[in-house]
Amino acid sequence: MLINATGPWSDRTRAELLSSLRPGAPDPEPVLRPSRGIHLVFPAFTQGHGVLWFARQDGRVLFVIPFGGHALVGTTEVEVASPIAGDALTPSVEEVRYLREELARAFPRTGEMPALAVTSGVRPLIATPGAVGAASREHRVIEEGPMLTVAGGKYTTFRLIARDAVAALRRMLSAVVQRSATRARPCPRRPTRPIRRRSRPRPPVRRSRGASTT
Ligand SMILES: Cc1cc2nc3c(=O)[nH]c(=O)nc-3n(C[C@H](O)[C@H](O)[C@H](O)COP(=O)(O)OP(=O)(O)OC[C@H]3O[C@@H](n4cnc5c(N)ncnc54)[C@H](O)[C@@H]3O)c2cc1C
Questions:
Q1: Is 72 in the same domain as 26?
Q2: Is pLDDT above 60 for 166?
Q3: Domain count for the chain
């Protein structure tokens, strides 16, 4: 059994591994539609505060967060092809300009401030139609012969991803693997005291006829 958990490189790894498992077979269809996001690092300028605001140019949510004594400003969303090519992680001039312009609108004195660093990463988004910014952040577990690929998802959904991967492994190995304990096991570093439920029941919510519940 092989578990491919190579994030944005999942399609490339799938293609490479499947070609060695099934020589001559065509490359599998990519399941990802990755997007690059860059961040700029500045000297701290928000006195330790995190700030969120909306970009004027496209309405995206931008942020400044304290980052090891500095300020991290992000981010962008630019589609890149999958399998990922060598230059996919290179930040473009437009991305840097976009972040700098939007930052200077919100914090005019950063206009003259040189960025200390630029970071770049690629999000492993599942391929869906429509704008890449609205692409699904869901994950998929793909079974291909003796290989299982975990694709998509977010840091915040890693437990769900692991649970689904273990369930797929159990199917593939006919339950030799133990059932995932994720549902019963709290997150590490959870609050030490249990969260108390409200003692008084909430008043019933009155809904007018035909009111939407979504
Ligand atoms: C710009 C940006 C913003 C994000 N924002 C959020 C957010 O707001 N909230 C959130 O929860 N998550 C966020 N994420 C996280 C992201 O969406 C993914 O969930 C996360 O990066 C995927 O984790 P992963 O373990 O699947 O892949 P990765 O963390 O990329 O790990 C894949 C690993 O596989 C290795 N690898 C690749 N090829 C091979 C190979 N052939 N052999 C061996 N190893 C290999 C790589 O070196 C890497 O270590 C963000 C990511 C980016 C880039």
A1: no
A2: yes
A3: 2
